[in-house]
Amino acid sequence: METLTPLFTLRGVGVSLGGRRILDGIDLDIPKGRATFVMGRSGAGKTTLLRVLNRLNECFPGSETCGDVRLHLERGVVRPYAGELSLPELRRLVGMVFQHPNVLPMSIGKNIAMPLTTVHGFGRDEAMDAVRMALEEAQLWDEVRDRLDTDARTLSGGQQQRLCLARTLAMRPEVLLLDEPASSLDFMSAKGIEELLESLRGRYTLVVVSHGLEFAARLADDIVVLRDGRVHNRVRDISENRAAWLDGLETLF
Ligand SMILES: Nc1ncnc2c1ncn2[C@@H]1O[C@H](COP(=O)(O)OP(=O)(O)O)[C@@H](O)[C@H]1O
Ligand SMILES: [Mg+2]
Fold first, then answer.
1. Does a structural domain hold residue 177?
2. Fewer beta carbons within 10 Å, N or C terminal of the chain?
3. Ligand 2 center to residue 224 CA distance, Å?
4. Which ligand is the nearest neighbour of the Cα of 17?
5. Is residue 141 part of a domain?
6. How sure is the predictor about 246, in pLDDT bands with cuts at 50, 70 and 90?
7. Tell me, what's the pLDDT at 187?
8. Residue to substitute in 13, 42, 47 for testing ligand 1 pocket (most ligand atoms within 8 angstroms of CB)
Protein backbone atom coordinates (compact mmCIF):
# COMPACT_ATOMS: atom_id res chain seq x y z
CA MET A 1 0.00 0.00 0.00
CA GLU A 2 1.31 3.47 -0.85
CA THR A 3 2.46 5.62 2.04
CA LEU A 4 0.15 8.57 2.48
CA THR A 5 1.18 11.98 3.68
CA PRO A 6 -0.62 12.67 6.94
CA LEU A 7 -2.25 16.02 7.58
CA PHE A 8 -3.02 15.21 11.22
CA THR A 9 -1.42 12.64 13.46
CA LEU A 10 -2.96 11.89 16.84
CA ARG A 11 -1.19 9.72 19.40
CA GLY A 12 -2.70 8.72 22.71
CA VAL A 13 -5.23 11.51 22.59
CA GLY A 14 -7.79 11.73 25.36
CA VAL A 15 -10.46 14.29 26.16
CA SER A 16 -12.36 14.87 29.39
CA LEU A 17 -15.46 17.03 29.52
CA GLY A 18 -17.39 17.85 32.66
CA GLY A 19 -15.12 15.52 34.65
CA ARG A 20 -15.87 12.54 32.39
CA ARG A 21 -13.46 10.82 30.03
CA ILE A 22 -15.05 11.15 26.59
CA LEU A 23 -12.18 10.06 24.33
CA ASP A 24 -9.34 7.77 25.33
CA GLY A 25 -6.16 6.49 23.69
CA ILE A 26 -6.95 7.75 20.22
CA ASP A 27 -4.21 6.92 17.70
CA LEU A 28 -5.14 8.21 14.29
CA ASP A 29 -3.60 9.44 11.06
CA ILE A 30 -5.72 11.64 8.83
CA PRO A 31 -4.19 11.52 5.36
CA LYS A 32 -3.89 14.67 3.30
CA GLY A 33 -6.25 15.17 0.38
CA ARG A 34 -8.52 12.27 1.26
CA ALA A 35 -11.96 11.80 2.76
CA THR A 36 -11.91 10.25 6.22
CA PHE A 37 -15.31 9.27 7.59
CA VAL A 38 -15.84 9.11 11.35
CA MET A 39 -18.72 6.83 12.18
CA GLY A 40 -20.29 5.21 15.21
CA ARG A 41 -23.32 5.41 17.42
CA SER A 42 -24.69 8.52 19.00
CA GLY A 43 -22.55 9.48 21.98
CA ALA A 44 -19.50 7.55 20.73
CA GLY A 45 -17.40 10.72 20.70
CA LYS A 46 -17.43 11.66 17.00
CA THR A 47 -18.13 15.36 17.50
CA THR A 48 -15.62 15.53 20.34
CA LEU A 49 -12.99 14.01 18.04
CA LEU A 50 -13.64 16.66 15.37
CA ARG A 51 -13.38 19.34 18.05
CA VAL A 52 -9.93 18.01 19.00
CA LEU A 53 -8.69 19.00 15.55
CA ASN A 54 -9.57 22.69 15.88
CA ARG A 55 -9.29 22.97 19.68
CA LEU A 56 -13.00 23.62 20.02
CA ASN A 57 -13.41 21.42 23.09
CA GLU A 58 -11.68 24.19 24.99
CA CYS A 59 -14.87 26.23 24.68
CA PHE A 60 -16.26 24.02 27.46
CA PRO A 61 -15.03 25.11 30.89
CA GLY A 62 -12.92 22.46 32.58
CA SER A 63 -12.24 20.49 29.40
CA GLU A 64 -8.95 18.63 29.25
CA THR A 65 -7.13 17.31 26.21
CA CYS A 66 -4.04 15.11 26.55
CA GLY A 67 -1.78 13.28 24.14
CA ASP A 68 0.01 14.39 21.02
CA VAL A 69 -1.68 16.21 18.13
CA ARG A 70 0.41 17.23 15.13
CA LEU A 71 -0.61 19.15 12.05
CA HIS A 72 1.67 18.63 9.05
CA LEU A 73 1.83 21.84 7.03
CA GLU A 74 3.99 22.83 4.04
CA ARG A 75 6.11 24.93 6.37
CA GLY A 76 6.65 22.03 8.75
CA VAL A 77 4.99 20.12 11.56
CA VAL A 78 3.19 22.15 14.21
CA ARG A 79 1.61 21.08 17.49
CA PRO A 80 -1.53 23.17 17.97
CA TYR A 81 -1.79 22.28 21.68
CA ALA A 82 1.79 23.37 22.32
CA GLY A 83 1.04 26.90 21.17
CA GLU A 84 2.87 26.48 17.86
CA LEU A 85 -0.05 27.94 15.93
CA SER A 86 -2.34 30.78 16.94
CA LEU A 87 -5.97 29.91 17.52
CA PRO A 88 -7.27 32.13 14.65
CA GLU A 89 -4.75 30.56 12.27
CA LEU A 90 -5.70 27.04 13.38
CA ARG A 91 -9.40 27.79 12.95
CA ARG A 92 -8.71 29.21 9.48
CA LEU A 93 -6.73 26.15 8.39
CA VAL A 94 -9.17 23.73 9.97
CA GLY A 95 -12.64 24.81 8.87
CA MET A 96 -15.73 23.29 10.44
CA VAL A 97 -19.32 22.95 9.29
CA PHE A 98 -21.80 21.99 11.98
CA GLN A 99 -24.86 19.77 12.03
CA HIS A 100 -27.22 22.74 12.13
CA PRO A 101 -26.39 25.63 9.80
CA ASN A 102 -25.12 28.53 11.91
CA VAL A 103 -25.56 31.52 9.58
CA LEU A 104 -24.79 34.92 11.05
CA PRO A 105 -27.73 37.33 11.50
CA MET A 106 -26.72 39.50 8.55
CA SER A 107 -26.87 39.48 4.76
CA ILE A 108 -25.83 36.55 2.60
CA GLY A 109 -22.83 38.46 1.26
CA LYS A 110 -21.70 39.68 4.69
CA ASN A 111 -21.86 36.15 6.09
CA ILE A 112 -18.84 35.39 3.96
CA ALA A 113 -17.23 38.83 3.64
CA MET A 114 -17.35 39.87 7.30
CA PRO A 115 -14.91 37.27 8.66
CA LEU A 116 -12.58 38.00 5.74
CA THR A 117 -12.50 41.77 6.29
CA THR A 118 -12.51 41.85 10.09
CA VAL A 119 -10.32 38.83 10.89
CA HIS A 120 -8.16 38.46 7.81
CA GLY A 121 -7.76 42.04 6.66
CA PHE A 122 -9.20 41.63 3.17
CA GLY A 123 -10.04 44.85 1.29
CA ARG A 124 -13.58 45.34 -0.03
CA ASP A 125 -12.93 44.27 -3.64
CA GLU A 126 -10.76 41.36 -2.62
CA ALA A 127 -13.51 40.22 -0.23
CA MET A 128 -16.20 40.49 -2.93
CA ASP A 129 -14.11 38.32 -5.27
CA ALA A 130 -13.70 35.78 -2.50
CA VAL A 131 -17.46 35.84 -1.79
CA ARG A 132 -18.25 35.00 -5.38
CA MET A 133 -15.61 32.26 -5.63
CA ALA A 134 -16.76 30.65 -2.40
CA LEU A 135 -20.43 30.77 -3.40
CA GLU A 136 -19.58 29.22 -6.76
CA GLU A 137 -17.56 26.49 -5.09
CA ALA A 138 -20.47 25.81 -2.72
CA GLN A 139 -22.85 25.67 -5.70
CA LEU A 140 -24.96 28.51 -4.33
CA TRP A 141 -23.96 31.44 -6.54
CA ASP A 142 -26.71 31.05 -9.15
CA GLU A 143 -29.39 30.97 -6.45
CA VAL A 144 -28.24 34.05 -4.52
CA ARG A 145 -26.31 36.27 -6.95
CA ASP A 146 -29.24 38.69 -7.22
CA ARG A 147 -29.90 38.93 -3.50
CA LEU A 148 -26.55 39.08 -1.72
CA ASP A 149 -27.98 41.88 0.47
CA THR A 150 -30.87 39.75 1.72
CA ASP A 151 -30.79 38.40 5.29
CA ALA A 152 -29.19 34.95 5.24
CA ARG A 153 -31.89 33.64 7.58
CA THR A 154 -34.41 33.83 4.72
CA LEU A 155 -32.58 31.01 2.91
CA SER A 156 -33.80 27.41 3.05
CA GLY A 157 -32.00 24.95 5.34
CA GLY A 158 -30.04 23.44 2.47
CA GLN A 159 -29.05 26.86 1.17
CA GLN A 160 -27.99 27.95 4.67
CA GLN A 161 -25.80 24.88 4.99
CA ARG A 162 -24.18 25.62 1.61
CA LEU A 163 -23.64 29.22 2.77
CA CYS A 164 -21.88 27.93 5.90
CA LEU A 165 -19.73 25.75 3.70
CA ALA A 166 -18.98 28.74 1.44
CA ARG A 167 -17.99 30.83 4.48
CA THR A 168 -15.54 28.11 5.48
CA LEU A 169 -14.18 27.64 1.94
CA ALA A 170 -13.56 31.40 1.61
CA MET A 171 -10.89 31.04 4.31
CA ARG A 172 -8.89 28.71 2.02
CA PRO A 173 -8.72 25.96 4.66
CA GLU A 174 -6.41 22.94 4.55
CA VAL A 175 -9.08 20.66 5.91
CA LEU A 176 -12.85 20.68 6.24
CA LEU A 177 -14.52 19.11 9.26
CA LEU A 178 -18.13 18.26 8.51
CA ASP A 179 -20.26 17.12 11.44
CA GLU A 180 -23.33 15.35 10.05
CA PRO A 181 -23.69 18.22 7.59
CA ALA A 182 -26.82 16.86 5.94
CA SER A 183 -28.64 15.32 8.89
CA SER A 184 -30.83 18.33 9.73
CA LEU A 185 -32.00 18.70 6.13
CA ASP A 186 -34.84 17.29 4.05
CA PHE A 187 -34.04 14.50 1.62
CA MET A 188 -33.44 16.62 -1.47
CA SER A 189 -31.33 19.24 0.34
CA ALA A 190 -29.32 16.47 1.99
CA LYS A 191 -28.69 14.94 -1.41
CA GLY A 192 -27.49 18.35 -2.64
CA ILE A 193 -24.99 18.61 0.22
CA GLU A 194 -23.75 15.08 -0.42
CA GLU A 195 -23.21 15.83 -4.10
CA LEU A 196 -21.43 19.04 -3.19
CA LEU A 197 -19.06 17.16 -0.89
CA GLU A 198 -18.36 14.69 -3.66
CA SER A 199 -17.34 17.63 -5.85
CA LEU A 200 -14.89 18.79 -3.15
CA ARG A 201 -13.35 15.35 -2.72
CA GLY A 202 -9.72 15.30 -3.80
CA ARG A 203 -9.45 19.09 -3.59
CA TYR A 204 -9.55 19.24 0.20
CA THR A 205 -8.84 16.96 3.07
CA LEU A 206 -12.30 16.07 4.36
CA VAL A 207 -13.18 14.68 7.79
CA VAL A 208 -16.84 13.77 7.72
CA VAL A 209 -19.09 12.53 10.51
CA SER A 210 -22.02 10.73 8.95
CA HIS A 211 -24.54 8.01 9.69
CA GLY A 212 -25.13 7.42 6.00
CA LEU A 213 -23.68 4.04 5.05
CA GLU A 214 -24.42 4.53 1.38
CA PHE A 215 -22.92 8.02 1.44
CA ALA A 216 -19.80 6.72 3.19
CA ALA A 217 -19.46 3.85 0.74
CA ARG A 218 -19.61 6.36 -2.11
CA LEU A 219 -17.38 9.13 -0.78
CA ALA A 220 -15.02 7.82 1.91
CA ASP A 221 -11.44 6.82 1.34
CA ASP A 222 -10.88 5.78 4.93
CA ILE A 223 -13.33 4.96 7.71
CA VAL A 224 -12.83 5.24 11.45
CA VAL A 225 -15.47 3.72 13.70
CA LEU A 226 -15.59 5.00 17.27
CA ARG A 227 -17.19 3.17 20.14
CA ASP A 228 -17.30 4.47 23.71
CA GLY A 229 -14.61 7.03 23.02
CA ARG A 230 -12.11 4.65 21.46
CA VAL A 231 -11.21 3.63 17.93
CA HIS A 232 -13.18 0.43 17.44
CA ASN A 233 -12.41 -0.15 13.79
CA ARG A 234 -10.37 1.41 11.05
CA VAL A 235 -10.46 0.70 7.33
CA ARG A 236 -8.12 2.25 4.82
CA ASP A 237 -8.86 2.82 1.19
CA ILE A 238 -12.33 1.48 0.66
CA SER A 239 -12.17 3.09 -2.78
CA GLU A 240 -10.49 -0.10 -3.99
CA ASN A 241 -13.80 -1.90 -3.73
CA ARG A 242 -16.72 0.41 -3.03
CA ALA A 243 -19.41 -1.99 -4.15
CA ALA A 244 -18.35 -4.60 -1.61
CA TRP A 245 -18.14 -2.04 1.19
CA LEU A 246 -21.67 -0.88 0.56
CA ASP A 247 -22.80 -4.18 2.06
CA GLY A 248 -19.85 -4.60 4.41
CA LEU A 249 -19.86 -1.31 6.31
CA GLU A 250 -22.42 -2.48 8.86
CA THR A 251 -20.04 -5.19 10.05
CA LEU A 252 -17.60 -2.51 11.23
CA PHE A 253 -19.87 -1.28 14.00
N1 LIG B 1 -19.71 19.83 26.55
C2 LIG B 1 -19.88 18.63 27.07
N3 LIG B 1 -19.85 18.45 28.42
C4 LIG B 1 -20.00 17.22 28.95
N5 LIG B 1 -20.19 16.09 28.22
C6 LIG B 1 -20.24 16.21 26.89
C7 LIG B 1 -20.10 17.48 26.24
N8 LIG B 1 -20.19 17.27 24.91
C9 LIG B 1 -20.40 15.94 24.73
N10 LIG B 1 -20.42 15.31 25.93
C11 LIG B 1 -20.60 13.86 26.13
O12 LIG B 1 -19.57 13.20 25.43
C13 LIG B 1 -20.04 12.01 24.83
C14 LIG B 1 -19.70 12.02 23.36
O15 LIG B 1 -20.39 13.10 22.75
P16 LIG B 1 -20.22 13.45 21.24
O17 LIG B 1 -18.79 13.62 20.93
O18 LIG B 1 -21.14 14.59 20.95
O19 LIG B 1 -20.74 12.10 20.54
P20 LIG B 1 -21.29 11.85 19.06
O21 LIG B 1 -20.95 13.04 18.22
O22 LIG B 1 -20.61 10.58 18.62
O23 LIG B 1 -22.76 11.64 19.18
C24 LIG B 1 -21.54 11.94 25.13
O25 LIG B 1 -21.73 11.10 26.23
C26 LIG B 1 -21.88 13.37 25.48
O27 LIG B 1 -22.95 13.40 26.38
MG1 LIG C 1 -22.15 14.39 17.22
1. yes
2. N
3. 14
4. 1
5. no
6. confident
7. 93
8. 47
Ligand 1 atom nearest residue 180's Cα: 21
Domain that holds residue 229: 6-102+173-252
Q: Which residues contact 197 (CB under 8 A, 6 or more apart)?
A: 35, 178, 181, 206, 208, 219
- Specify whether the CB–CB gap between 189 and 161 falls below 8 A: yes
Residue in 45, 53, 63, 47 with CA at minimum distance from that of residue 29: 53
156 within a domain of the structure (yes/no):
no
What's this model's pTM, rounded to 2 decimal places?
A: 0.96
**Ligand 1 in reach of 51 Cβ (< 6 A):** no
CATH code for the domain in which residue 85 is found:
3.40.50.300
164 — pLDDT class (breaks 50, 70, 90): very high
Alpha-carbon gap, residue 152 to 38, rounded angstroms: 30
User: What's the pLDDT at 239?
Assistant: 87
Q: What is the pLDDT of residue 243?
A: 87
Residue 75's pLDDT band (cuts 50, 70, 90): very high
Residue 42 lies in a domain: yes
Number of domains in the chain: 1
**Ligand that comes closest to the CA of residue 60:** 1
